[in-house]
Amino acid sequence: MRKTKRDERESKRESRSAEPRATDSPTHSSARRGDITAKLLNEDTLPLTLLLFYHIFFLQVLLSKAQQSVPVISTAQGRVRGILTPLPSDLLGPVVQYLGVPYARPPIGERRFQPPEPALPWPGIRNATQFAPVCPQSLDERNMLTDMMPSWLTANLNIADTYLTQQSEDCLYLNIYVPTEEDIHEEGGQRPVMVYVHGASYTDGTGNMMDGSVLASYGNVIVITLNYRLGVLGFLSTGDQAAKGNYGLLDQIQALRWVKENIGAFGGDPNRVTVFGSGAEPAVSACSPVHYSEDLFQRAIIQSGSALASWAVNYQPYKYTRQLGEKVGCVVDDSSALVECLRGRSYRELVEQNIIPAKYHTAFAPVIDGDVIPDDPQILMEQGEFLNYDVMLGVNQGEGVKFVEGIVDSEDGVSAEDFDFSVSDFVDSLYGYPEGRDTLRESIRFMYTDWADRDNAETRRKTLVALFTDHQWVAPAVATADLHAQYGSPTYFYSFYHHCQSDATPPWADSAHGDEVPYVFGVPMCRGHDLLDQLRQDWRPEPARSPGHQVIHTKPNRFEEVAWSKYTPKEQLYLHIGLKPRVRDHYRATKISFWLQLVPHLHHVNELLQSVSSFTHSPSIQDETPYSYTRRCPKCGPPAAPSTPGPLLPVRRSPRSQRWDRGAGRRRTHCPA
Q1: Class of domain 84-114+133-517+587-673
Q2: Residue 507 has what pLDDT?
Q3: Are 659 and 240 in contact (CB under 8 A)?
Q4: Which GO terms describe its cellular component (predicted)?
């Protein structure tokens, strides 16, 4: 029989495998290992080899001891093991990190657009040593509200993407940073707890990006960061029972419930919990009566945010929900059918849709649902829902930089034409009643013109930044502080002035929105930058290790030999945070009085004129635009005269969907007296 080439190859392979190989011989193997050992242990290489062996041995011992030294914590859902992390400074002790700990069930399938449910128990020991996926969000910059995002984030989106690429609807996890050094001043060994709620206008971000290790170690507090649902998945609402919205806020509440139930096992005090964060997110969340009724936290630090800002609450949720449905092929009139259709779409298809909100607003944000946010935040504050916490709040000097940065020629200043256009666009976007807009425009131009240097383009740029900063951040923050402090509730106000030059903001900018966040998390203590070293030398706060330490001091605390007193509506004391901290009073008082006193008066007059002219004129232009001003109670008649301590910003809210009247059954409507 003739052999094929395949047969010949197989025959050769069999013959080779049948031949005895020297390497298969035990004797040969031993001899070979002996040769290698002899080479390693000759007199030239012996010291180096022994050093290598000792290094490997002790490294294994240290790793084993480190693993054993990390305690396994028993929570209500199961046991977790973290990771011991040393920090790059002799001032800081190591921290145990527990990463990716679930606080709720995955909001997938039928649980999409539903309140969160508590996490299910897990068997065995869960290794909490790496971050969980982040909540779904668009990575397309065109879908981001960059004007209202922290400058350090918008300038480093390429770095942020490394944290944001791993996304999943199964994202409701938190991270816990626990200091390891004992503090003899802490009674009973329980530490204060700080829960960080990240900002970015309800659309972007993750708690994973903020490493709480330095803050935990230096402050001897337990720091917690968390993920919550964002954008369409976190705040879609039909204005009725089909999808009430506020799922992102409910996630935060569920996380705080988990903290209250479990933080004692980590050495934390459930009765000393501080919620903090940058932006409107923690401010709106703190307005919810749910927190007080369940005693979920006792203090709040609100950085550069207010529930009174124009984008803090969405007053026309159904409009944007319908727009989303049209974009993904869910064109139905029934709200329940619409929500069911949206549940059938992939989360990626939903979050990638570019739903453009009205200017200075957000498409998917908290809504007045009758439960989590039972009424307008201003009314809740006036009724005392916000008075039960100690509050620290403040602003940065140049919050509005992003609104001006994109204006033509901003590097060389702002031309008179660009200044006038920006003011007109600002008024048209936020205020109704065309008859009164000219008066308001001229009033704003007058107030924000430096008459001693009116032809200087750089001065115009500076005053334009101040305009956006005052209206969108400072005035709402001062109004919030006044409302909170007028009944004696502990209130502290600050203004952050320090600007560390970086690529995040242009060279002409002051401290922009979010610039304080890296300092809060201790970046100067980990970086070798000269300016940060200078800052660390100049800022010598009394360590949080002092006797009787509290996260927000209820007694005058020491900061560079400066006693920071409580804020009151009369004295309006605030802490100027810069290289030379000091206490001042009445922050930007003239400009803020313009927004809180004069503008509401002009607005009130124009409302009266509009109501009179409506009897003799056909429907005005404002009735035909999608962003016309709507009073809280359209049928209640002209608004009442402003009450003490003064009216808040009468910015034009986007019109509410009529579904609120027939959908949110428990929602209360307050009409002016």
Answers
A1: alpha beta
A2: 73
A3: yes
A4: plasma membrane; synapse
173-179 and 573-577: which strand pairing? Answer: unpaired
Residue 426, both tokens: 């600002």
519-539 in b/e burial notation, b at 16+ Cβ within 10 A?
A: bbbbbbbbeeeeebeebbeeb
Can you list the residues of the chain whose pLDDT is less than 70?
Answer: 1-69, 141-162, 183-188, 385, 408-410, 432-435, 500-505, 526-560, 605-673
Q: Which pLDDT score, from 0 to 100, does residue 554 have?
A: 41
d(CA 143, CA 362): 11
Radius of gyration over alpha carbons of the chain, in Å? 30
Rounded to the nearest integer, the mean pLDDT of the chain is 77
CA 133 to CA 172: how far, in whole Å?
Answer: 9
Token pair listed for 307? 């529930």
CA distance 485 to 391: 9
pLDDT (0 to 100) of residue 42 = 55
**Calpha distance 575→510 (Å, rounded):** 17
CA 608 – CA 313 distance, rounded (Å): 26
Q: Is the dihedral of CA 481, 486, 489, 492 positive or negative?
A: positive
Give the Cα separation of 265 and 615 in Å (integer). Answer: 67
> How far is 325 from 44, CA to CA, in rounded Å?
76
Angle between helices 434-447 and 416-430 (to 10 degrees): 140
Euclidean distance between CA atoms 657 and 391, whole angstroms: 33
Question: What pLDDT score was predicted for residue 672?
Answer: 28
DSSP code of residue 669: -
**Residue 373: Cβ-neighbour burial (10 angstroms; 0-12, 13-18, 19+):** buried
**Residue at token pair 């054993």:** 68
CA–CA gap between residue 672 and residue 234 (Å, rounded):
32
DSSP string, 370-436: SSSS-S-HHHHHHTTTTTTSEEEEEEETTTTHHHHHTSTTGGG---HHHHHHHHHHHHHHH---HHH
SS (H, E, C) 60-74: HHHHHHHHHHCCEEE
CA distance 197 to 207: 7
- Quick one: which of 262, 190, 277, 176 has its CA closest to 549? 190
Q: How far apart are CA 490 and CA 387, in angstroms?
A: 9
DSSP state of 104: B
Separation CA 572–CA 566 (nearest Å)? 8
- Residue 589 and residue 573 in contact, taking contact as beta carbons nearer than 8 Å: no
288 and 249 Cβ atoms separated by less than 8 Å: yes
Distance from C-alpha of 252 to C-alpha of 285, rounded to nearest angstrom: 8
Question: Quick count: other Cβ atoms within 10 Å of Cβ 5?
Answer: 7
What pLDDT does residue 29 have? 43
How is the chain split into domains, by residue range? Answer: 84-114+133-517+587-673
Neighbour count for residue 336 (Cβ, 10 Å): 13
pTM of the model: 0.77
* CA distance linking residue 281 with residue 201, whole number of Å: 7
- In whole angstroms, how far apart are CA 212 and each of 19, 217, 224, 551? 64, 9, 7, 15
Handedness of CA 632, 380, 480, 197 (dihedral sign): negative
Burial of 602 (0-12, 13-18, 19+ CB in 10 A): middle
Give the HSE-up count for residue 52: Cα atoms under 13 Å, Cβ half-sphere.
7
